[in-house]
Specification:
Blueprint: H1 8-16, H2 31-34, H3 37-40
Biased composition (Polar residues): 53-65
Keywords: Amino-acid biosynthesis, Asparagine biosynthesis, Glutamine amidotransferase
InterPro entries: Asn_synthetase_domain, Rossmann-like_a/b/a_fold
Length: 65
């Protein structure tokens, strides 16, 4: 079934070494949906848009080199 064989090594590590047996059985999801971050972001933003909050060109940072 879906979610069983996908990402087998990651699921094995989650189950055996990280004590996450329930999480290791969840179906695979895209990271932006799996973490629910998409719900927190502006609905107007598209995946192809450049994020102004993350670009260094728009940051007012002092360079102390």
């Amino acid at each position: 079934g879906r979610g069983i064989g996908e990402k087998y090594l990651l699921r094995y590590v989650a189950r055996q070494y990280l004590s996450l047996p329930q999480s290791s059985t969840y179906p695979k999801r895209a990271i932006q949906f799996g973490s629910r971050i998409a719900k927190l972001e502006s609905r107007k933003e598209k995946a192809s848009d450049q994020c102004a909050r993350l670009t260094t060109d728009n940051n007012n940072m002092d360079n102390e080199d």
